[in-house]
Amino acid sequence: MSTQFKQAEHKIPGPIEVADEVLYANAHPSMSHVSPEFIPVFGECIKMLRETLLTKAGQPFLIAGSGTLGWDQVASNLVEPGEEALVLHSGYFGDSFADCLEAYGAKVTQIKAPIGAAVTEAQIEKALKRSKYKVLTFTHVDTSTGVLSNAKMIAQVSRRVSPDTLIILDGVCAVASEEIRFDDWDIDVVISATQKGLGTPPGLSVVLASQYALNVLENRKTPVTSYYASWKRWLPIMKAYEFGSAAYFATPPVNLIYAFHVSLKSITHGGISLEERFHLHREASKRVKQAAFDLGLKQVPLDLDYSANGMTALYYPEGLDADDIIPLLMKKDIVIAGGLHKDIKGKYFRIGHMGLTAVDGSRGDLDKIIQGLQETIREAKAAKGVQ
Amino acid sequence: MSTQFKQAEHKIPGPIEVADEVLYANAHPSMSHVSPEFIPVFGECIKMLRETLLTKAGQPFLIAGSGTLGWDQVASNLVEPGEEALVLHSGYFGDSFADCLEAYGAKVTQIKAPIGAAVTEAQIEKALKRSKYKVLTFTHVDTSTGVLSNAKMIAQVSRRVSPDTLIILDGVCAVASEEIRFDDWDIDVVISATQKGLGTPPGLSVVLASQYALNVLENRKTPVTSYYASWKRWLPIMKAYEFGSAAYFATPPVNLIYAFHVSLKSITHGGISLEERFHLHREASKRVKQAAFDLGLKQVPLDLDYSANGMTALYYPEGLDADDIIPLLMKKDIVIAGGLHKDIKGKYFRIGHMGLTAVDGSRGDLDKIIQGLQETIREAKAAKGVQ
Asked: Hey, what's the signal peptide range on this chain (chains A, B) (predicted)?
């Protein structure tokens, strides 16, 4: 899997670093999606995604698109027009998932946590007792707040109170950086994308569906309300590639699947186990959050137990804002992301530390980020005369 | 734009060769989609797509997905449930577009041409006089048959008989290899993808909509029936990037857009004009078709004037089939595609000769293809004792 290819010099980007080997695979010569060389590459991606999410029978769907397309897959395959959906809101992405569900005719109820908090078990239980929901959705890590929801607790309370309700985990910012035990926790759908913890450029919608979810699809009374996102059309394709033959519904993003294959291989069969990967993300997160705490920076999440391990969202120090901090960090070749949640947009920033950055300490990314942050806060305070 | 990067050794694939520079851009270091370096790259792709399709005011939509997603965009944005659609069928892709339209509630009428033919002007005129259609769709090049429809004629008759009907050109296999004059011919939507004449790996849905089409969208009575494919959600994003700022609806496939930028630049500002590009495709096509004729091979298209210039579909010689031909060509490092149209699937094969293969004679791709085909037919006939 090694190669002489080295990507161009660049700053450390906020979201994720991509390995040279993965980028080299993205530059693979043009291959037909039905060629005998490509079929096992696609097939193995399907199998390795199962390993990554700790499931035996979950059905992967790998479709050209962004993470958002996963919402359309849930809304158009699993919810029939007029049915009810319960959306747990821990940031920006809850609102958007609700919009998507409504676009396909669902009746949506949102439970909104205060900024920096997650919806509580008591709130979920109460809502599920009040009404019959076809799906319950939550954002595992909402990148707009850095809040980590307790996926295991949510699945447990949902299954206990309303056994038929499909449990939908939006894991775009969580898969491969946060622990997700698809079978053990009894999740029905995980939605993700390649460009975060999965360590691959963006452009592939990555979804995993339980057999129960597929059964619900099979028993719909009305037709699926999408064409491109229809699992009925994609299921035979995924099965064909997994079992060694090609089938066509729409052209897969061939190069990106070569790249994804390299990254999945390092996640599932690289030097470290999945458990170790999660542990290293927790350790990396602690280091960044401790350093921020030592600098007097306040986290957006109100509770450390509800904080993402692949990213950190921090309020700017009193008296400083984005213009004081981001350009200074950029000069040190460190890219961070500004605020995203509309209510606090100008007041905070986000640091990504998932994937290679967390797992491969020899790169020194974390040292660079922490040192850069320390210097920047000191310099920005001095420049503004802020204590 | 030059680079030291050389892609790995490979056979000549059927669909398209991708330039080293384009693949190198696909291996660009990870960049945030809102980074100041990326914004103009996306913005320029939007502008260069307009140039490629010869339009001033057409609105591009560049969305992570395959070409198929373009059908969903037409069906969910421009056709309201219960409205009528006229699909001109010149091969496999007509049936699929019809399926897609029906998935979103359209009432579809298909006019089916015999295999190898296109729908005639008289048939179109008669259909448009009989009923009121919201959209008329046609496949410019149906890759399952190699039939090239006369886009200019179709647009003319449609506008003359039914001025309000939206004219939808499916150009996945045609854009940048066949002449398309969006403004002059008065087309409303062109649907395409990156992986054919546009010379880039697959994974980006490429769509161009007229201001009239956007106006029809604006005046819908019912909501758009998709979320991910909704132009109302994408329009502000495309405008933001074009005018130099970032906006977010769903993550763009950043690396692929870097790659697409390099390819579009060579199409619109490379050594040869668009007119010359079309001319070179016609010349390449003539060479391949003449060579096939000299070998006694029969084309699937019934008329040379209705034959694609970026590909050639040929029946196997009497007494020979795929197993006799494809492996022999493969040994000569030439990849061709088997049949796709279900009625004649095992009876014919397809050769791609678009993009670099047609435009850059110094590569010698055409010589290699033609010589390989000549040798293969001779060898296969000898092996089977066929005259």
From this structure: none
